From TrEMBL:
Species of the source: Dactylosporangium salmoneum
Protein name: Nuclear transport factor 2 family protein
Domain of life of the source: Bacteria
SnoaL-like domain residues: 3-122
Cross-referenced Pfam families: SnoaL_4 (PF13577)
Gene3D superfamilies: 3.10.450.50
Length: 164
């Protein structure tokens, strides 16, 4: 795996952690002492995780979609710029505070230590937000349904993959 691929995978792991409410996975994406600058938060990663988890639990679900991703590696440090969209939904469905989509950018300084890339400093900016109140509808029938915890099927399948 190239450095660029490893850094892109890091961003995807972060998104999985956020969407599955797996704060241990989110924490593992940052180096100790990392700093996060988010809309509404600015400070150490430990405080960021304590701040973001209850906010996320206020939604019925979130889905982060990663798009353009540019990585510039210089030795054991890199600049990573990720464009994406984050969909948020909640109850009541007509609440614009609980039902919205945001376009975002993550601009990260990442560093490789002991062969592993992690975030050293993140700037997460909302480029735009669109209210989606009233547009979310219940599932149309039975079938696989994601969960917002480590009981989600992605974790069960991963466990089967690593422990056949």
């Amino acid at each position: 795996m190239t450095n660029e691929d490893a850094i892109r995978e890091l961003v995807c792991r972060y998104c999985r952690g956020i969407d599955r409410l797996d704060m241990e996975l989110v924490r593992s994406c940052y180096h100790a002492g990392a700093i996060d600058h988010h809309t509404g938060f600015d400070g150490p990663v430990e405080e960021y995780i304590a701040w973001v988890e209850p906010k996320l639990r206020g939604f019925d679900g979130t889905m982060h979609l990663v798009a353009n991703h540019l990585v510039e590696v210089v030795g054991d440090r890199a600049l990573s710029e990720t464009y994406g969209m984050a969909v948020h939904w909640g109850t009541p469905s007509d609440s614009p505070q609980l039902n919205f989509t945001s376009g975002f950018r993550y601009v990260d300084i990442v560093e490789r230590r002991d062969g592993e890339w992690r975030i050293l400093e993140r700037y997460a900016s909302r480029e735009w937000t669109r209210a989606e109140a009233g547009l979310f509808v219940p599932r149309e029938g039975p079938g696989p349904a994601g969960r917002r915890d480590r009981e989600d099927y992605v974790y069960r399948l991963r466990d089967r993959l690593v422990t056949p």
